[in-house]
Design brief:
The chain is built from four helices and three strands, in the order αβαβαβα. Strands 1-2-3 form a three-stranded parallel β-sheet, sandwiched between helices. The chain has about 110 residues and is an alpha/beta fold. The relative contact order is 0.14. Helix 3 links the parallel strand 2 and strand 3.
Length: about 110
């Protein structure tokens, strides 16, 4: 039994040392991130926009992981009332999301 306990302790010690070495190497070599240009995402949405919520959630998740999304524009390309309500809800839920017409999206890109 004592041999088993020593083996478990040795295993966790080896894992701890490997984790510490990896953390140090990551801090030294991988922490120097390149400066990325901010991005604009345009989502043309129509009808009830059934996949809109998943799309915005995944883009927000990617943005939290380092993708520099300046703005996520949802362009109204024929949204019905249900789709427009969903887009407005997402606009309130996520700070980067804006609902607009395609003309407003074009003006936003030109004036950036």
């Amino acid at each position: 039994m004592e041999l088993f306990e020593q083996s478990v302790v040795a295993f966790f010690a080896a894992v701890g040392i490997a984790w510490a070495a990896w953390s140090i190497a990551e801090a030294l070599f991988l922490s120097k991130r390149e400066k990325l240009e901010r991005c604009l995402v345009l989502i043309p949405a129509a009808r009830d926009a059934s996949a809109l919520e998943r799309t915005v959630a995944r883009l927000s998740w990617a943005s939290a992981g380092g993708a520099p999304f300046e703005r996520i524009l949802i362009a109204d390309c024929g949204l019905d009332e249900r789709g427009r309500a969903l887009a407005r809800q997402l606009e309130q839920q996520y700070a980067a999301v804006r609902l607009c017409t395609m003309e407003d999206a074009e003006a936003y890109v030109r004036n950036r």
